[in-house]
Fold this protein.
Amino acid sequence: MLLCSFFIFFNCEDKQSRQKKAPPQKTKVSKVEPKIKETIVDSTKLTLEERFLPLNDRNAMDFFLEYEKENKENKVRIHTSFGNIDLLLFDNIKFHRANFIFLTKNKVFDGTQFHRVVKDFVIQGGNSDDRKVTKKRKKIGRYLLPPDAKRGYKHHRGVISIPSSEIENAYKLASPYEFFITQSNQYHLDEKYTIFGRVIKGMDVVDTIANQETDTGDWPKHNIYITKVEVIE
C-alpha cells in the first residue's frame, strides 16, 4: 500500500514538473534600418549651365569667361519680318560676344521685337511681353554685363551696341537681353555704350525697319518681330 502511494506521488510530481518547465524563448528579430542611398553629385560631370545657372551679378562674368573659350562663333543672323540682318561680333569684346552667342543658342531672342524705332537714329530690339520669352529669361537669370566701351570703336552707321552698367538706373536700361543697331553715325554715344559688333549684310533691312511708323513712345504701330536669331558660318 505504501509502495503504491509512493508511485502515485512520484508520478504526479513528475507530471507537474514537466508542466512547469519554462516556455521556449522567442527568437529575437533584429530591426534592420533601411539604408539611405546618398546621391553624390560629381561637379566635374555637370555642364557649364548646370554649374552656373541662373546667372546673377556675382557669377555671370565667371560663366562667360569659361563660355567664350569653348564658343568662338562670331557671326549671327537676325531674321525679321522685313528680311535678315547679318552681324559680325568683335572677338575682343569677349563678354558681350559670348553673351549674345549664348542667348542666341538658347533661342532667347526668338519671338522678341524691335520695340523702339527712331528714324535716322537707332532700332532697338530684344524686348517682349510674351510669357515664353519671360520664362526663358527667368531660367537664365538677372545680371548685368560690365562696360567695355573704351576699345576705340565708334558708333558709326550699322554697329550693334548695348547700354553700359555704369549708367544711372542700370538695371532699367542696361539689360543684356536687349541691343540696338545704329542707322546713322551717333558719336555722342561713344564710351557710354558698348559696341560689340557691326552689320555686314542687311543694312537695307535696318533702314526699312527704321522708317516704320511709330507711336509717341517710339514703339512701332505694327509689331516688328524677330522671328529667329541663329549662329552662321
In short: The longest helix spans residues 2-19. Confidence is low (pLDDT under 50) at residues 1-13, 15-20.
